[in-house]
Amino acid sequence: MKFKGLIDIDQPREKVVALFKDPKYLGEYQEGFIRKEYINGLKGENGAVSKVFYKHGKGEMELTETIISNNLPESFYASYQHKHMDNTLKSTFTSLSPTKTRYETQGEYTAFRGFIPKMLGLFFPKMFEKQAQKWLNNFKVFAEKQ
Questions:
Q1: Secondary structure of 132-143 in HEC code, one letter for each residue
Q2: Which InterPro entries match (predicted)?
């Protein structure tokens, strides 16, 4: 299942990318973000592996992020594994003017495990796209305040 999102941000690309690549800002636009822990490889480099933790109900949800291709400031491509689903996400940053940047995402869920995740993917695919767009919108608000 594939999804896309995009948003134009009133900031130069260099600033947008600097905010995007610094994990200390994830909580500013991703609700429930707790922390990111580097596990293996060089931070930010191709092949680097991290654990990313989010609040989920009364507990935590853990994702494993593996960087597939870091070509920032142009693009960042990573895979994310969770016990219930796997997905990839490519983020691209295009300078529209010296003070405006287009931030686009292209994602694909490649595996759903368990009855409920499979049903969500089958019957509510727009739910995943809406969540990605929500984080893009949140990022725009955050970035434009910087």
A1: HHHHHHHHHHHH
A2: START-like_dom_sf
Backbone angles phi, psi at 84, to 5 degrees: -105, -15
pLDDT band at residue 122 using 50, 70 and 90 as cut-offs: low
Single pTM value for the model? 0.91
| Gap between the Cα atoms of 20 and 40, Å rounded | 21
pLDDT in tens, 60-90: 999 999 999 999 999 999 999 999 999 999 9
Write the CB contacts of 126 (distance below 8 Å, at least 6 apart in sequence): none
Please list, in sequence order, all residues whose beta carbon lies within 8 angstroms of the beta carbon of residue 42, skipping any fewer than 6 positions away: 48
Name the burial class of residue 88, with classes exposed (0-12), middle (13-18) and buried (19+) by CB atoms within 10 angstroms of its CB.
middle
- On the question of a cis peptide bond just before residue 23, with omega within 30 degrees of 0, the verdict is no
- Cβ 92 vs Cβ 74: under 8 Å: yes
For the chain, which residues make up each domain, given as ranges? 2-144
The pLDDT of residue 120: 73
Name residue 105's beta-bridge partners: 5, 91
